Amino acid sequence: MKQAAATNNNLQPRRNRLQPTWTGWLFISIAVIMICAFYFYPMIQALLLSFKTGTGANIHYTGLDNYKRLFTDTVFLTALKNTFLYLIVQVPIMIVLALFISVLLNDSKLRFKGFFRTAIFLPCVTSLVAYSVVFKYLFGGDGLVNKLFMNLHLISEPIQWITDPFWAKITIIIAITWRWTGYNMIFYLSALQNIDSSIYEAARIDGASPIRQFFTITIPLLKPIILFTSITSTIGTLQLFDEVVNITKGGPGNATLSISQYIYNLSFKYTPDFGYAATVSYSIVVLIVLLSIIQFKAAGDKK
Amino acid sequence: MKALKRSPIYIFLIIAAAISIFPFLWIVASATNASVDVSNGRLLPGAELLNNFRNLTEQVELGQALWNSAKISVTTTVLALLIASLAGYGFEIYRSKAKDIVFSIMLLSMMIPFAAIMVPLFQMFAKFSGVLPVIGIDTVASVILPTFTTAFLIFYFRQSSKMFPKEMLEAGRIDGLTELGLFFRIYVPTMRTSYAAGAIITFMSSWNNYLWPLVVLQSPEKRTIPLLISNLGSSYTPDYGMIMTAIVISTLPTALVFFLMQKHFVAGMVGSVK
């Protein structure tokens, strides 16, 4: 249809004459140059750097030494393990929670819908640094969360939310979930609004329970958006930095250290080792590519 | 009966909303209390706001940090909207096979984690320091340059351009407008709402950006708001009332933008995915 319209349009040939092919390229040129200069070029630089060692003028190629070091570096392996734990625990909890809330909010008979939606989305207006500092204080040893739990007699002594290796990870997971659930909810809500309500009516007439409707109608129709949010959440979690730095500083020990924070420490906190930092950073790139492919495959196979 | 059936839903949503809102109430209440009262768990508003504010402005360069953040965020937003909308328009209106391939390559940059390019970028700007100091390390330009062009925003404007009525361009051409004239005189005014949504998203992420400014800004007087908050938060003897006052002030601009333009905000987030 569209093609037919284009060939019938007698303005088309004149438009081509008035519009030399390079005009379009001029429009996109600045953006393409900027992306190449500040994304792709540094990526190539990082690759070259990952085969080098030393600092300043003393930097020289060492072949695969950095990559060998990677697999025996216990700090890196800890950071990798922590990041995977955040990924496996936090992302599914958040996505299920966001889906569940958005389905509840999509109910046309529900009252105070606008209030609930705004309230649950509100954490997204905070900066990552600001909410991290707030969570650090709320979850402190004598912080409000412990006071509340003790008053409710849920616990008999304060939980060491920040200083215990296990609880510190839980605190990070709670914090990220608080900040991002509403964000993902908005995507699901807008997708749900686009689903034709007659599909649900037909299902109801056929006697499908709400739970059955959720799994056979809602989930399949939301699949593209669930895929989108799970990929963006995965990329976000692999880049986790602000929260860990400002809530636990990566501690206790390295119990909450994330890969991004390790790269930062290697480059700017310890004696700078840009080469090895670049090697570590390529591990995130590989992970992002692999996990995105896996998620695409998983979503595609269910079809 | 029906209302009763829904009550678990309401209870669940009320709990979820309460957990979401509570930290905000706590920040605001704490900003009006003395540090001692905050650590004792006082949740009611107090009368210490002015005192906290005075301590804050005496101890740190709050005004300077706000000005630095504003300068960076506004410039980033203006540049980002201009460059990304030119590109999104170019990719969609002058569509060709070659441009579609370039577009897909540009999208790949969304997969690049910032931590992976942070070190080469730092080296790049360190080199600039020797040649062209105005864009070298520790300058406003060094914060803005590598962050304002994002594939996300280009993608967003391309998606929005699909809804743009292209006949308007033909009419403009007949009126004798140049190709650039078509863009500025017809496209930009027509797409106002897309620009508003894009502006909010860009402003927020620039205002809240932490990692790159942390790397590239070194002198204290160049610090942006997130760096200042992070610094206050890492103090061993934190003055809670004062820190919460700083957090309230730093969150006000983004919260205001959100409440005034909630619709655009959501449109900006979701628009690119549709």
TrEMBL record, chain A:
Membrane topology, record value: Multi-pass membrane protein
CDD domains referenced in this protein's UniProt entry, alphabetically: TM_PBP2 (cd06261)
A Pfam family that the UniProt record links to this protein: BPD_transp_1
A single cellular component GO annotation: plasma membrane
Keyword match Transmembrane helix: yes
Transmembrane segments: 21-41, 84-106, 118-139, 221-241, 274-294
Swiss-Prot/TrEMBL GO biological process terms: transmembrane transport
SUPFAM superfamilies recorded: MetI-like
Chief place where the protein resides: membrane
Ranges where the ABC transmembrane type-1 domain occurs: 80-295
Entry's family note: Belongs to the binding-protein-dependent transport system permease family.
Name this polypeptide is given: Lactose/L-arabinose transport system permease protein
UniProtKB/TrEMBL annotation, chain B:
Gene3D superfamilies in the record: MetI-like (1.10.3720.10)
GO terms, biological process: transmembrane transport
Keyword Protein biosynthesis: no
Source species, domain of life: Bacteria
Tagged with keyword Transmembrane: yes
Domain (ABC transmembrane type-1): residue spans on this chain: 66-261
Residue spans crossing the bilayer: 9-29, 72-89, 101-122, 134-157, 194-212, 240-261
Gene Ontology terms: cellular component: plasma membrane
Subcellular localization(s) per the UniProt record: Cell membrane
Membrane topology: Multi-pass membrane protein
Keywords: Cell membrane, Membrane, Transmembrane, Transmembrane helix, Transport
UniProt record similarity statement: Belongs to the binding-protein-dependent transport system permease family.
UniProt protein name: Lactose/L-arabinose transport system permease protein
